[in-house]
Structure formats: C-alpha cells, structure tokens
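Session log. Operator J.P. requested a structure for one protein chain; no other inputs attached. Running the standard single-chain path with token output.
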Amino acid sequence: MIASLIVLVGLLASAVAALVATHLRYRRRRPAKPPTPGAGRILFPFMGGALSQRALDAALRLARAEDATLVPVFLARVSMQLPIDTPLPHQSGVALSLQEAIEQRATAWGIAVDARIERGRTYRHALRQTFEHERYDRIVLAAAERGHDGFDAGDVAWLLDNAAGEIVVLRPDCDTTIRPPAARSRRAPRPARVRAGVG
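Structure written below.
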C-alpha cells in the first residue's frame, strides 16, 4: 500500500514538472507584444551609409525612460540639377536597410518606431523640412567624426538657432557604427514615409 502511494506521488510530481516545463516553453515562444507608440517623440536624424550605435542607444534609452516614440529620419540629399522628387534608389535602399536595423534594435528595447525619409537640397534643408512636418520633443544626433557621417559644429550651431526643443549631441565611437547589411533579409521592412516638397 505504501509502495503504491509512493509510486503515485512520484507520477503526480513528474506530471506537474512536465506541465510546468511545457508552460515555460510556451511562454518563451510567444511573440512579444508590439510596442505601443508613446506620447512623446524623439527625433533621430541621420545621413550617409552608416549611423552611430552610441547615438542610437542614447536615443533608445531616452525613449524608454520617457515612454516616447523614436522617429528616425534619414536625410536624403537631392542635387540642384535634379527635380526634388527624383527617385533616389541608392539612398532609399540605404535608408530602408538602416531603418530596419533601427527598428529591430528598438523592438528589442520595447520602443515604438515611426521612421521617415526626408528630402532636401542640403542636409540642413531636409532638417528644416522635417521641423515643418514633424512633432517632436527633443532631437538626438551624432556629431561628425573622422570616418563617420554626422553633424559638424556648424550644423549643431544651426540646429540651436533653428530647432525647437532639447538637442542632444553625442560624439560617436567609430568602432560601433551600424551599416546596411550586404544582403537584405527576406522580410520586407515597413516602408518609411517620404516627404518630397520643397518649402
């Protein structure tokens, strides 16, 4: 009788352990809830073929602390010899690759992303266009460094005169740049909204 009871208790313990293991495995496999857009908005302008991971991580930390939406804006420069709405396949490809990398990183942090591509004759012109169309609370950007695309001292001074809200400028670490992958992933990225007008 006691032997049967011991066997029964052992079987029950095994069944409970199996149920707990299955439940934990199911919880790990379940996709994370998509981030919900926050009330605040943090503008993250960038240009060129790479972006500063240090500046991006700073923008993500601020967005998480403030429950804000990250707004990465790729600044596309259009030559004066071309119409402003000329297709820019190379710049668009780079922009979408980098924005996909930003979105993947932001999703891991639980932060909503609202990506943009803004055209302009110069980077400052594209920024001015962005300021006219977008609502934001602060701007986070990378300073220009040797071997890294970013905003130089003149750009930062221009921003202080022309942009509203707080401006956070970070000196990038050239060893931690994010570049577009050589081969695109099969998953199509969410298209960024493109502005084409000249103001």
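Operator note: The chain has a mean pLDDT of 79.
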